[in-house]
Amino acid sequence: MAASVKQGRLRGKFMDEIGRKGRPGASSTPLRAARIQDVARLADVSTATVSRALATPDRVSPEARARVLEAIAQTGYVPNPAARTLRSQKTFMVLVVLPDLANTFFSKILRGIEETLFDAGYGMIISDLDGSPEKEAHFAAYTAAGRVDGAILLNGHLFGQSRDGKGTPAKINIPLVALCEAIPNAGIPQIEIDNRAAARQMTRYLASLGHARIAYVSGPAENVLEHERFQGYRDGLLAAGLSFDPELVLSGDFTLESGVRAGQELVARAERPTAVFCTSDEMAIGAVRTLRSAGLRVPEDISVAGFDDIEFAAAAQPALTTIHQPRRELGQAAATVLIDLLQGRETEKRIRLKTELVVRDSVAPPRA
Amino acid sequence: MAASVKQGRLRGKFMDEIGRKGRPGASSTPLRAARIQDVARLADVSTATVSRALATPDRVSPEARARVLEAIAQTGYVPNPAARTLRSQKTFMVLVVLPDLANTFFSKILRGIEETLFDAGYGMIISDLDGSPEKEAHFAAYTAAGRVDGAILLNGHLFGQSRDGKGTPAKINIPLVALCEAIPNAGIPQIEIDNRAAARQMTRYLASLGHARIAYVSGPAENVLEHERFQGYRDGLLAAGLSFDPELVLSGDFTLESGVRAGQELVARAERPTAVFCTSDEMAIGAVRTLRSAGLRVPEDISVAGFDDIEFAAAAQPALTTIHQPRRELGQAAATVLIDLLQGRETEKRIRLKTELVVRDSVAPPRA
DNA sequence: TGCCCTGATGTAATCGATTACATTTACTTT
DNA sequence: AAAGTAAATGTAATCGATTACATCAGGGCA
What we know:
The structure is a homodimer. Chain A is of the alpha/beta class. Chain A has three domains: 2-79, Orthogonal Bundle (434 Repressor (Amino-terminal Domain)); 90-192 and 328-352, Rossmann fold; 195-326, 3-Layer(aba) Sandwich (Rossmann fold). The first copy, chain A, is built from 13 helices and twelve strands. In chain A, the strands form three sheets. Chain A has a six-stranded parallel sheet with strand order 2-1-3-4-5-11, sandwiched between helices. The longest helix of chain A has 16 residues, at 224-239. Chain A starts with a helix and ends in a 10-residue tail after the last strand. Chains A and B meet through helix 6, helix 7, strand 2, helix 8 and helix 12 of A and helix 1, helix 5, helix 6, strand 2 and helix 7 of B. Chain A binds a DNA duplex through residues 1, 35-37, 45-52, 55, 59-61, 64, 79-89. Chains A, B: This is LacI family transcriptional regulator.
């Protein structure tokens, strides 16, 4: 072995071999990226040792390790991900499935996911389903083909299933995690907020200020979040000793436009509620806008509360009283759970992060 | 070491499955995904023919092709991306580099990118630089390692370079496209709006209403967009016959908070401008908020204009007069150019999409 | 001394596709 | 009929890593 170490000393020569493609002079740029072979030759070890020096450093002698690292630095070697994946069946990639990438609600969640994945050495592939079944089929095939090690679902249903659980879910044999919109009966970990408790809290808060007629602007009827929030609304009324009045439930779909429509309907009413609880900030902003342009003052004439605490909730006029969702933390938690699953650790089946009632200016006691 | 024991279990099972190759009965769930070999055997052709039937269908006889497709349907075969990439050196993945994923300005752009890439069969990997040099180095290595075929840069500089062009750009030998923030002298295609012309248009519009003292709230000093918009502001003043007054330039950084600060400074001034042109909607919203809470009416006492036309520009109170950026189209254009590059087609070196002056309620003629 | 064990390393099979090159067949052309 | 050409297909090398298995040196122990 002493001999070969000595040989290692004269290894300057091998540098030439790497890019020998008959190109001119002292071009410092190797046309081909360095492979593990090149590193092995330079460090005078086998490719197996190079691989081990990176994956399991303590199974390689300190001297060999040092030579390998030196050779890696010299060649600028970076392992080829395709080759690595082909052999080891690990991609170090995670798929994030979104119903709508343009929805600003998701951006901070995405950031939470991204940073956590990054720190664990994983990359993030994004799929924006955009309500398209073809895209969904495509991404189902994606996961099946082993392009990712796991997935985080923000869309409220499994591949091949509709939101209400109808249809046969595609057979996906990689770890999944549901984020924000829970997927009932899917047997996968859920990361979410306690929507019911949060809606209850807001309703009770409104009641505590003296509001007796509290309207509710709903999300889409089939939405899981909507169900929970509606339950919370009713819980809150009950707890405050108020009776539930179906007349006070307006249907929306979380969008600003549906908030505008709800506002119009309220304006048109003879007997108006004194407070409106919208289950999304966008709807609240739309409602406020409509109520104000009809000459009503918010909160003096009517209080409006939102849900989510999106970026512009604080900047809105008046600043919105709402339920704060820890979006970044939600993303981080989902990514953490998924990584745990990927690395074979135990995980919690359900994580509920705390929301917070944020009191700003759009809610006040009703006029006496 | 429970983990390794568990692994041993799994492995054993795994081996059994493989072992029973000529498997009996109607086991419906193949534990291993079908490989090209399985399809070839079933269709009674070679793997080469299967590969060709998918990649170049017209080089395969109709009969063979039909048998192959049938076999693929039966087995549920999906080509293994890692194997394909390893051999062909194509990943069908594109990296999108963002300065800040949580910034809502990017979400609609991302959607434009995603949908275009998807239609062309490419996937999207997102990197949120978050101002971190380590992340940048990591993603530079990423591209170098051949994990993606190309990249779209929204961060205004090349890997390894700072925004002002200092530093040695990392040697990246895949196609790149700069989106929104141009990268000067990088020799890569740029997709952007004409910031200068847009700022000029807004400034002239304000002047045309009779405003003579038009303040300007800037973006970060080192930002390319800021330079162009500032030029446009001065162009506009000149074209309207107004003189430039450095006193009217307030420095911001595109954030809502900096708009608030600018608003405070304006409120404190004895001689106030009659209009304020903020070079981002967020700053405009922040400024409006501050001005109003100081008792000034917008637009009656002071007009405020924005730039970008983000989601909430229309919902703000008052609705913001601003410059509309076609964000989705910007994303689409960038993705289209990149795909053209990837497929060896000629592309334009510079694409400038049209902006639009959107007149809403935050700007009005000055009081007489 | 002889045997076994451990740690370090090397050899080569393997992952699953693509594709250069070889081969076969059928059909034209002279 | 011989030769040339084109179309269809097959054979096997190849991409670049990981890793099962083999090998070997040196140390501990009976």
